[in-house]
Amino acid sequence: MNLQHIVVVALVVVGSFFLAVGTIGLLRLPDVYNRLHATSKSTTLGAASLFLAGFVYYGGAGAGLTSLVGIAFLFITAPTGAHMISRSAHRMGIDFHGQDAEWPEEE
Length: 107
Hints:
Blueprint: H1 3-28, H2 32-58, H3 63-91
């Protein structure tokens, strides 16, 4: 087993861990905002680690290049999607869980 395979295995393990944490957060957290935070952050890191493992395994051409494009696409679309879902939930009137959290006053 050479260094390339060790790096690929490490990235797959790290990616799987973050994806599992995001899934547990989705199932366990109380409201849409907390669930959204758990899934958008951890699954972005998890999927990026898996894409990076694909890049390390396949190299810089072909499927490896596709993996890099996937990482770029993921980092552009995941925060935008999370923001839009959060904004839609706020406009629908979905409140935060708990009594201490409030939306800031709009100007």
